[in-house]
Specification:
With 211 residues, the chain is an alpha+beta fold. Helices cover 28% and strands 24% of the residues. It has a single domain, classed as Jelly Rolls.
């Protein structure tokens, strides 16, 4: 029996084996229960432009805020620590939200060294496009050389331990592509620096959209 904790199917997460090639990662379709999916997708905030926006810079209410609260809780933090055998307890967290993608998104990268673990939760009710499917890549040079491909369907989780080998990206896509990104960061200072950087970028995007 699949029992959710605050809308998160943590037993499914725990039972899903950790993939170790080409780097440590886990993919869990159905990580969110149906009620959480319905609430979070219905109350997904208005994100006016492509790019990552700090959760503090968008209107988080209702079911969407409940999902953020669940991800911010100790049960999920413990599950991540156990899955990756790294203690993230007490490390600063950075929540960002993506609502749309543009063709330049998805370029191959590993995430910065200031990030310890990255979690992506997708909130797209349907996904038929070939682009926009995140790929776990074997190296830095070829988006077609991948070990796994993740459809960004609502309720799917993708998490990985950041390393010099954690290459990922996706084929170009333009349009709505909803996701929450949660990062455990190395220090409060780098977390706050990232928030400031994303905040400045998001405010500039809003000004450009008004213009």
């Amino acid at each position: 029996m699949n029992i959710s904790v605050n809308g998160l199917n943590l037993d499914t997460f725990a039972a899903t084996p950790l993939a170790t090639y080409p780097y440590e990662h886990v993919v869990v379709p159905g990580f969110l229960d149906h009620a959480m999916i319905d609430g979070a997708t219905s109350d997904f905030p208005d994100v006016p432009k492509a790019g990552l926006f700090p959760a503090t810079e968008v209107s988080c209410t209702g079911g969407f805020q409940r999902l953020l609260d669940a991800l911010d809780g100790p049960d999920f933090e413990t599950a991540i620590s156990q899955k990756f055998s790294v203690d993230v307890t007490g490390l600063p967290k950075l929540f960002t939200v993506r609502g749309r993608a543009q063709p330049k998104d998805g370029r191959i990268h590993t995430d910065s060294v200031t990030k310890v673990v990255t979690v992506l939760i997708y909130l797209n009710r349907e996904w038929s496009a070939l682009g926009g499917r995140l790929r776990v890549l074997r190296g830095p040079d070829d988006i077609g050389d991948y070990a796994a491909e993740i459809e960004p369907a609502a309720g799917t989780l993708f998490a990985f331990l950041r390393s010099d080998k954690s290459f990922h990206g996706h084929e170009p896509f333009f349009g709505e592509r909803r996701a929450i990104q949660l990062n455990w960061m190395t220090t409060v200072a780098v977390r706050d620096r990232e928030i400031s950087r994303h905040r400045m970028s998001s405010r500039l995007k809003r000004l450009l959209s008004i213009g």
